[in-house]
Amino acid sequence: MSRRHRGTRRGTRRGDLVAVLVAGLLVAGCSAGPDEPSSTSTPSPSTSRSSTAAASPSPTVPPPAPHRAACYRLSTADLTRPTDQSTPVSCHSRHTTRTIFVGGPHAGAASTSAGDAARQHPSTTCPRQLARFLGGSAKARDLARFQVVWFTPTREEAAAGAQWFRCDLVAFSRGDRLLALPTKGTLARVLADPAALDTYGLCGTAAPGARGFARVVCGKPHSWRAIDTIALAGGGAYPGAAKVRRAGEQDCKSRARAKAADTLKFKYGWEWPTAEQWRAGQHFGYCWAPS
């Protein structure tokens, strides 16, 4: 799945519209006001009038922002919720998400100024922070099973002044099932090493579109692999399935041939984006080949 996976808030799923071809032949295809005085009567001369100053309200302190680099044990269903109140767990124990950035005016060191904080928005900031954290090329990140999700304060926290947002790194194992993240070392800059895709890349249990096909991380048993992405021209409007299919098919065939042991007889699969994915910003398709 692609950005931000988090239901429709986080991104879109990579679709199953796919052409699987053998040497070019299609075989199976994706308030109150100020305090009032306690009495309005005029004191008698025999008594002294006492008064008390109105107590100044204590300043409201916003709830603390989440810790940066915290880890959590979340499920896929948890990712579809806008808020998360889970207790962090040790990053040396089993966990499925890791915070890589906390932004907003009350996020401490994450924001350098109120102006910077005001310009931050999770839908744009979190993907940028994911790219910075993982390293590598944009193509490598598109071919990996990593995504970013974000959480915001609860309604009660927001009412108390909380304005932070939390960006969490996740990875997918099979389908939408979350992968347990490493308990040793760090994933920072992991995609700077191309070999990391052998573990965290996008692979399949069968030819894409075929019966029994499921997306899996390449560190799990698989028989096909997404070997490349192919950018597609077009603006905001979806060009149409037929057009995006034709646009990338020959390029995919050529790239699969270049990687095949037998350049005269080989298989490849071209998977183009759906209209929903296009609207979400995925203007590329996946080129697949047997692994």
Structure, briefly:
By secondary structure, the chain is of the alpha+beta class. It is 23% helix and 19% strand.
Shape: globular
Counting copies of identical and different chains, the oligomeric state is: single chain
* First-residue to last-residue Cα separation: 20 Å
Spans of at least 5 consecutive residues with low confidence:
1-53
Largest sheet: 7 strands, antiparallel
State the helicity in percent bands: 10-25%
If strands are numbered along the chain, what order do they take across the biggest sheet? 2-1-10-11-9-7-8
Give, in order, the helices and strands: HEEEHEHHHEHEHEEEHEHE
Kindly estimate the percentage of residues that lie in beta strands according to DSSP.
15-25%
Summed up, the domain count is 1
Radius of gyration from CA coordinates: 27 Å
Task: Please tell me the overall pLDDT.
Answer: 82
Explain what you see.
This protein is an alpha+beta fold. The protein has one domain. It has 9 helices and 11 strands. The protein has helices at residues 7-10, 76-79, 114-119, 122-134, 138-143, 155-159, 197-200, 241-259, 275-279, and strands spanning 18-22, 25-26, 71-72, 97-103, 146-151, 165-171, 202-204, 215-217, 224-231, 267-271, 284-290. A 7-stranded antiparallel beta sheet has the order 2-1-10-11-9-7-8. The chain has a 4-stranded antiparallel beta sheet with strand order 3-4-6-5, with helices on one face. Strand 1 and strand 2 (25-26) form a beta hairpin. It is globular.
Task: Outline the secondary-structure elements.
Blueprint: H1 7-10, E1 18-22, E2 25-26, E3 71-72, H2 76-79, E4 97-103, H3 114-119, H4 122-134, H5 138-143, E5 146-151, H6 155-159, E6 165-171, H7 197-200, E7 202-204, E8 215-217, E9 224-231, H8 241-259, E10 267-271, H9 275-279, E11 284-290
Antiparallel strand pairs: 1-2, 1-10, 3-4, 4-6, 5-6, 7-8, 7-9, 9-11, 10-11
